[in-house]
Amino acid sequence: MIIFPAIDVLDGNCVRLIQGDYNKEVVYSDSPVEMAKAWEAKGADFIHIVDLNGAKSGESVNKTVIQEMAKAVKIPVQVGGGIRSIETIDSYIKQGIDRVIIGTAAINDKAFLKEAVAKFADHLVVSVDARNGYVATEGWTDTSDVKALNLVIELETIGVKTIVYTDIAKDGMLQGPNLEEQAAINHATSIDVIASGGITTIEDVNNLEELNIYGAIIGKSLYDGKLDFEELMKERNGSND
To answer: What is the pLDDT of residue 16?
Structure first.
């Protein structure tokens, strides 16, 4: 299972939000580039980056700093937040971004999703963000009437290979992931599932791995010191390699 340390970029800073609430922001660093380099130095194999301004506005507001982050590290990065056009996806990939994540656009515009899957295949990830089992869009500010499980099944038929599945109720709460929901999503299709939301302890990581989850995104618990990334990677490398 791949462990993705998360870097959320808002107004050029590295921050975390509680349950996606833009009014509950904690700034951890004013240099996302240095943060990316730090995670690489600590042993990360992949970095997960979100443009929070972009997620809310639909524009890739922090594109320049994100490109700088990708160039500053040798490990791959995946990026999401406000990516709602073929041109934006193409631009990011040409700038060395390994995977581009689309969310709201995948829910609202199936024609765009199908074109993106056809053109970018392995470089494309769809973000499925759920609140009480229903898909949330527009940077988590709106909740749709689409059931997350039904959406994931539809995504597989379209050809999506990887998703990020976030339980918003767990995000930033340091209370552990929703294992039951993650398991249900993972077992519904053959899509690779990257779990996000509430992952706080090494036990949480181990529990997700037992579910055969493809990857896990960890954010707030790393920044708040609840989980030591180097200790986590050392244990995993010792027991799993």
So the answer is: 84
